[in-house]
Amino acid sequence: MNEIHAIAERVRTGDRLALARLISDIENGEGEYQQVLDLLYPATGSAHIIGVTGTPGSGKSTLVNCLARELKQGKCENAAKIGIIAIDPSSPFSGGALLGDRVRMQFHANDPHIFIRSMASRGALGGIANATDNVTLAMEAAGYDPILIETVGAGQSEVEIASLAHTTVVVEAPGLGDDVQAAKAGLLEIADILVVNKAEKLAAETTAASLMHMLELGEEIKGKRLGLSWKVPLVKTSAIDCEGVGELVEYIHAHYQFLHESGAWEKCDLMRLGKQVNYLLRESLFADWQKQLDQKNYNDLMVQVMHHQISPHQAVQKLLNPKQ
């Protein structure tokens, strides 16, 4: 057995150290992680991927902390080992991140049945990091199910999680500004479950009523992207003491059943995997094109663009068709 097969086998048998090292290689683009993932891929495809997104300050990290504890206590099926991927915003200068989600989830740090990985977004848009797909795959191959993914929390860029998760939980909270902002950001359109967190605040009822009215106007927005009839439930929670989280887990389990009974599970996976294949195809084609690029011609065209002699669109056309 060569080294690549050995690493894959260690991950498959639940070796946390091997999994952590594989994820580091995925994030940094180092080693032969892709060959390892190729070997692990047949062992994936059944984990329930749950995305948790929403506006900054809504308490997503605290809620995920409570969710993991509730899931571990057996309130939902398929919760023997729980994976958590927490995406933190990275510095546009250093590329580093505070990884504050890891700090907030210290309660589970030493739990052998919960694996937490904090990741920097590294400038990726959409609230998730570019490596999230592969990290999710690695966790699933190691036996973690469900897998919770907490996004950055950056308002209108959060909708990317809907193409990755089977169940998308959108978290809002009172006192964060105009409630219509959630609708403007497209968050209500991707919600499978809507949560009003910090329900202990006086304005929570008003926020919940406003969001429920928006959902009713949308006529069962939940599941809309799949053309199905799931009606989005609204749950009020107080994550600081885990109030209402049990009800949230019940809805997550109900959505899991709905996905399987309606055939939406396969549609979710087809959407997610199709997007991943298209992304890899674009990356590969671009890399091949760069290898054949005439650097002098490229530099000359950039000078012309800078002097407004040709437009960027014209430059691209010349690069793609140098003989014309």
Task: Please provide a written account of the structure.
This protein is α/β, with parallel strands linked by helices and 324 residues long. 47% of the residues lie in helices and 11% in strands. It has 13 helices and seven strands. The protein has helices at residues 3-12, 16-28, 33-40, 60-75, 100-104, 132-141, 180-184, 187-190, 204-218, 245-262, 264-291, 295-306, 312-320; strands at residues 49-54, 82-88, 114-120, 147-150, 167-172, 193-196, 234-236.
How would you summarize this macromolecular structure in one to three sentences?
With 324 residues, the chain is of the alpha/beta class.
Task: Record the SSE blueprint.
Layout: H1 3-12, H2 16-28, H3 33-40, E1 49-54, H4 60-75, E2 82-88, H5 100-104, E3 114-120, H6 132-141, E4 147-150, E5 167-172, H7 180-184, H8 187-190, E6 193-196, H9 204-218, E7 234-236, H10 245-262, H11 264-291, H12 295-306, H13 312-320
Parallel strand pairs: 1-4, 1-5, 2-3, 2-4, 5-6, 6-7
Helix pairs in contact: 1-2, 1-3, 2-6, 4-10, 12-13
Instruction: Please report the number of helical segments.
Output: 13
> What is the CATH top level name of the largest domain?
Alpha Beta
**Fold-level CATH name of the largest domain:** Rossmann fold
- Please give the domain count: 3
Helix fraction bin: 40-55%
Strand content: 5-15%
Q: Write down the overall geometry.
A: globular
Query: Strand order within the widest sheet?
Result: 3-2-4-1-5-6-7
CATH H level, superfamily name of the largest domain: P-loop containing nucleotide triphosphate hydrolases
CATH architecture of the largest domain: 3-Layer(aba) Sandwich
Run of helices and strands: HHHEHEHEHEEHHEHEHHHH
What ranges have pLDDT less than 50 throughout 5 or more consecutive residues?
A: 91-98, 123-128
How many distinct beta strands?
7
Mean model confidence by pLDDT: 81
Report on the biggest sheet: 7 strands, parallel
Distance between the termini: 52 Å
Structural class call reads alpha/beta
- If you compute it from the alpha carbons, what radius of gyration comes out, rounded to the nearest whole angstrom? 22 Å
